[in-house]
Each structure stands twice: as structure tokens, then as C-alpha cells.
Write a structure and sequence with these properties.
396 residues, alpha+beta, two-stranded antiparallel sheet, 9 helices, 33% helix, 21% strand, globular
């Protein structure tokens, strides 16, 4: 079945509109089990020390995690070399759209658009595009990678999650695959690259004689979106930019350029006719890379929640650290508690063991379940915070 098209609406101020996440029949294969078994009963009985000792013994024989999905090392954000500003042909339509959409907040001001440096080579080998709607419950991760053989084309891989609007029998997360002619992608890239280095700005006029300030205004929006674009050239250098938040006059220097880039890439992925696909090692490695980047940058709260939802379907041992961090986070607001539940859901799905169920099926508190996972398959001394030199656990 073909993936449903996700319409990205450029509304009002040009903010990227809410996205309905692609859904389809459960074509994805079940994640491979992490071969985690619950540790001995003493984990939650007797003393904490005894529980840790039992878990340590259990880890050697029962918590056998497969190696994390292979994730390529990070490449530099830029490379030494001359600045390559966008061409006049690429800048003109981007500038025109930004000037039309920009809402001036000060009377008598004017708007200008500045373009920075694009240091990528002429050919883009890979595009990573993330989009989502906070109120719409969606998050999608897309990758377009130039094919090395056959006709000129980009191979498309997508991972989508829907937190709110899932029909009975449909998965909350799904993988998609397709292909896009290279010519179509390359035709869109000049405007995308120009938008990624564009900065619209308002230049205020001095107040008239006898006045301290001029009149001011602002515009707000309830459209809560996430748009992130990362381009890589053949040398591995990156050009990237992202925006997460609400459209409106506040922050329009960021969300307006990203709405242009997001609209162009949405047209490509929505028109690709991507098909629901099974979850393979490549999909897990792609997700592991995006999770690693997100953990390092502390994403917006609802983006972190959606990543935890995706982890249940696309996670691997590489997701263990971020998931344990979410599951073991100190008590907090509603998002912290939702993230904790989603992380425990993901750990249960990946391991085949729901640590929230104790002996006889009795419900175990989430905090105890999180510690059980940390003891069984976390770094040595998990409940005590890990041994010296243990892998850092990231907190969303």
C-alpha cells in the first residue's frame, strides 16, 4: 500500500503546517529481541546491594545485547575552503518570499535578507529531513541518499511516528522506502541551500523627533512545528539548520527560511510514492544516528517524546542509553512522565521483557522498572549511577 501523502501547508506567516503522519498496515517486521531476561527476584527484594549483585550476575548470561546499529562517524559541519554564496538565481525567489512573509514589528522599519556561506561542494549526496507537528502528534525522519549505481536517482528512506491519531490495527510507527529521480531533487536543491543560509532581518528606523520609540506590533501562531534539514556532500561536510516552535513574528528569522526549505523537501517526499517497508539494519542505523544527534542537542520536549515512540520500532542497543536516561529521569512535568512511559514501552518492545510486571503479574512502579532495566542491561553499577568511565546517558 502506498504511504499516505503528508501535506505541508505554508500558511499565514509561512510557517510549516501540521503534518499527518503516514500510516499503513503493519508491514514492519517485529524488532529483534535484545535477549534481556528479568534478573533474579532479589533485584527488587532484599537489599539494593543484593539486587545489584544479582543483576550483575544475571547480565553476563541473560542481558546479551546485540551490537548497536552501525552509525557512521560525525563529519564536520563545514570544510576549509572558499565561501560559496548562493547564486543570484537561487537567492531571488527565496528573498522575494521572505520579504513578502516577514511581519514587521516596528513602524517605519524595513526588511532585508542576508545570505551566509554555503561551503558544500556542488553535489549533495545525502539529505536528511525531519518534520513534525506538536499538536498533530507526528514526527517523521526522511533520508534521501544518492544511488551509486544504475540510473541517476536518490534512494528514499522514511521513519514516521504518530502519537495521537492511530486507527485500530495500524502501527504507531512505520518505515517507508522509495526512489526519486535525481533531476527532481537537484532542481529543488538551489532554493533549499539558499534558504538554509538566509537570514531575514528587520532594520528599525530612528523614532521621530520628540518620541522615544515608534509604534510596535506582533503576530502569534498556534502552529507548533519541527523542521530540520541536513545536507552532506561527497566529502562528508554538512550544512544544516532547524527550527522547532511556533510561527509568529517572534523567531520568524528562523522559521520563515525553514518553512521554504521544508516545503520544497515535503513536495519531494510526498510525491515519491514511498511504500511501507520492513524494518532492517539500515533503518535502525539511520534512527540511531538521528537519536544520537538529538540526544546531544536536547530537543524540544515533544520531539523527544516522539523519538521515544520511534525507538520502540526502530531502536537497537544504540538506543539503550537515551532510553534509560528518560526512564530514570527525576520526577518532573507531564512531558517528563510521558517520556518515561514511552521509554519503558520501548525497552519492553526491544527486550521482549516488560519490567513493569513483577512476580505474578503485579504492576511494578515505573521507577523500579527503570532501575530493573538499568541493572539488567545498563552499564555496570547501573542503579548506582554507573561505574567510572561508563557511557554517558543523555537526558531529553
Amino acid at each position: 500500500m502506498r504511504a499516505r501523502s503528508i501535506s505541508t501547508l505554508l500558511a499565514g506567516l509561512g510557517a510549516l503546517g501540521a503534518c499527518a503522519t503516514p500510516a499503513g498496515p503493519g508491514a514492519a517486521s517485529a524488532p529483534p529481541a535484545l535477549s534481556i531476561a528479568p534478573p533474579a527476584g532479589s533485584l527488587v527484594a532484599a537489599t539494593p546491594a543484593a539486587g545489584r549483585a544479582a543483576a550483575q550476575g544475571a547480565r553476563a548470561s541473560r542481558c546479551v545485547l546485540p551490537p548497536p546499529a552501525a552509525v557512521p562517524p560525525e563529519s564536520p559541519a563545514s570544510v576549509a575552503g572558499r565561501c560559496r554564496p548562493p547564486s543570484a538565481e537561487a537567492k531571488a525567489p527565496v528573498r522575494a518570499r521572505l520579504l513578502r512573509a516577514f511581519e514587521r514589528e516596528h513602524d517605519g522599519s524595513r526588511v532585508d535578507v542576508w545570505f551566509g556561506c554555503d561551503r558544500l561542494g556542488p553535489e549533495v549526496d545525502e539529505i536528511v529531513f525531519e518534520r513534525g507537528s506538536g499538536h498533530g502528534g507526528s514526527l517523521e525522519l526522511w533520508r534521501l541518499r544518492r544511488a551509486r549505481e544504475g540510473r541517476p536517482r536518490y534512494e528514499l528512506l522514511g521513519l514516521g511516528a504518530q502519537a495521537y491519531h492511530v486507527r485500530p490495527g495500524e502501527p504507531a510507527a512505520q518505515a517507508f522506502r522509495g526512489e526519486v529521480d535525481a533531476g527532481r531533487v537537484e532542481a529543488a536543491l538551489p532554493s533549499v541551500r539558499a534558504a538554509l543560509v538566509a537570514l531575514p532581518r528587520e532594520i528599525e528606523a530612528p523614532p521621530p523627533p520628540g518620541y522615544l520609540i515608534r509604534g510596535m506590533r506582533y503576530v502569534t501562531s498556534s502552529n507548533d512545528v519541527h523542521v530540520s534539514v541536513e545536507l552532506r556532500d561527497a566529502a562528508g561536510a554538512r550544512l544544516e539548520r532547524s527550527f522547532t516552535g511556533y510561527g509568529g513574528s517572534s523567531g520568524q528569522e528562523e522559521h520563515l527560511p525553514m518553512s521554504i526549505a521544508g516545503e520544497a523537501l515535503s513536495a519531494i517526499v510526498d510525491g515519491a510514492g514511498a511504500e511501507a517497508a520492513s524494518v532492517d539494519e539500515e533503518a535502525r542505523a539511520f534512527f540511531a544516528g538521528r537519536l544520537r544527534r538529538a540526544a546531544a542537542s536536547e530537543p524540544y520536549w515533544w520531539v523527544g517524546e516522539r523519538l521515544a515512540l520511534l525507538a520502540a520500532s526502530f531502536g537497537s542497543a544504540a538506543a539503550l542509553g537515551p532510553l534509560l536516561s528518560m526512564a530514570r529521569a527525576p520526577a518532573g512535568d507531564a512531558s517528563v512522565e510521558r517520556s518515561r512511559g514511552l521509554a519503558l514501552d520501548a525497552l519492553a518492545a526491544l527486550s521482549g521483557w516488560d519490567a513493569r510486571r513483577g512476580e505474578g503479574g503485579v504492576r511494578r512502579p515505573d521507577g523500579q522498572a527503570a532501575e530493573a532495566y538499568a541493572e539488567a542491561c545498563g552499564p555496570p553499577g547501573g542503579a548506582a549511577g554507573g561505574a567510572a568511565g561508563a557511557t554517558k546517558l543523555f537526558v531529553f
